[in-house]
Amino acid sequence: MSSPSNPGRGRPPRLDRARTLRTALDLLDRSGLDALTMRRLADAMEVQAGALYRYFATKQDLLTAMAERMMDGVADAAGTCDGDWSEQLAALARAMRTALLAHRDGARVFAGTHSTGENILGFADTAMGVMRAAGFPGDDAARALYTVANFTVGHTLEEQAALQAEDGGPADPDALADTVTAGAYPHLTAGLPALTSTDFTRLFEFGLDLLLEGLRSRR
Amino acid sequence: MSSPSNPGRGRPPRLDRARTLRTALDLLDRSGLDALTMRRLADAMEVQAGALYRYFATKQDLLTAMAERMMDGVADAAGTCDGDWSEQLAALARAMRTALLAHRDGARVFAGTHSTGENILGFADTAMGVMRAAGFPGDDAARALYTVANFTVGHTLEEQAALQAEDGGPADPDALADTVTAGAYPHLTAGLPALTSTDFTRLFEFGLDLLLEGLRSRR
DNA sequence: ACCTGAACACCGTTCAAGT
DNA sequence: ACCTGAACACCGTTCAAGT
């Protein structure tokens, strides 16, 4: 083991994974993913950039640990919900979206990493348990889990991108409306209210309901 | 209009958007998104990096144009399919996945941009048209479109990440299997074959089918 | 009009050397 | 053992100056 510890001798370390992770998530919330650099994080910890590499092998490693931390407690959503299997699965998906939304660019951080920590594995195991208890075979449950998770990440990626769409930016709803009505897009024009709506919870619930309805009919 | 043109006088330009875009997609396929830098692209075009900024305002702008180009022809999938509305919607989703898979890191490029070009708008309009013709109201069609698109992007993001998972990497299936069986994840263990399967087409079809089944029951 | 050359203000990562 | 200082090999972007 070459990970840092302090068996009695030497100055106490000024850095540790837990505190660094908290500071990194703080910095993420304040400045966004693009501004989260190893140097700026080091500044916030009052340390030189190189020192971070004693605790995280790479920046990717740091981001993976951040994603894992974001998923802390998400699996518990299944327990605190007294519905059938589909309500429990919905609760897990909602808790995942909420966890990603809790941090600026949370979905981007999550999508860009592949944690195998206890929080995501616990989440996945809980979801699989809910479906297996409902009678789904293991492979169907696995595929359903991927589907729900991929939809949730894809949705929240869009949601957070739209959230930070400054006026005139690439995701500005007014600019989109202008482009659509100027072009030959009759069907888009007909759906414009819903297409440029900012009621992302309703959009998420719509998609989630489609998925669950599909699962119910397969059962 | 300050975009470059060549009305008779001066040397013919060595750069143009179309050729630069082709070279950029080539470079993407050969080296991946992380290695796609303005400097390397400039090298491939035998030009200095600064020259690219006459054709693309920012790197983000270049990436958006690349995403738009990837979607070229995807909307046509609805026409070349003689099924009901749900088969046509499925054909559109499959064509989108195929288009993203056609380039290394295609889903990452797409997810990181927000094109409002004619290819994505045409795709969206076609999908909306299919659903409206089937009797869906405009706002339901819009939400269904988002759901299918978000699922497709989320899935393909995962798929391409898994595709490039080198041994021992963060998405290595063997490493995941070891972690799962070592920990207390009974339900994950039961689903391991499907969880670590590389049959992504089957996984995609499973999710797509869930979505379409949900839509059919709502209609 | 189109591109070069050079600069500006950064990056992630490594590692000898200090304490 | 833990961190500094300094370097290495890069980035995206801007812009005066050349042709």
From TrEMBL, chains A, B:
Keyword Repressor found: yes
Ranges in coiled-coil conformation: none
Biological process annotations from GO: negative regulation of DNA-templated transcription; response to antibiotic
Native species: Streptomyces cacaoi
HTH tetR-type domain location: 14-74
Keyword Plastid assigned: no
Official protein name in the record: TetR family transcriptional regulator
Signal peptide stretch: none
Keywords: DNA-binding, Repressor, Transcription, Transcription regulation
Upper lineage: Bacteria, Bacillati, Actinomycetota, Actinomycetes, Kitasatosporales
DNA-binding region: 37-56
SUPFAM superfamilies referenced in this protein's UniProt entry, alphabetically: Homeodomain-like, Tetracyclin repressor-like, C-terminal domain
InterPro entries: DNA-bd_HTH_TetR-type_CS, Homeodomain-like_sf, HTH-type_TetR-like_transc_reg, HTH_TetR, Repressor_TetR_C, Tet_transcr_reg_TetR, Tet_transcr_reg_TetR-rel_C_sf
GO MF, one example: DNA-binding transcription factor activity
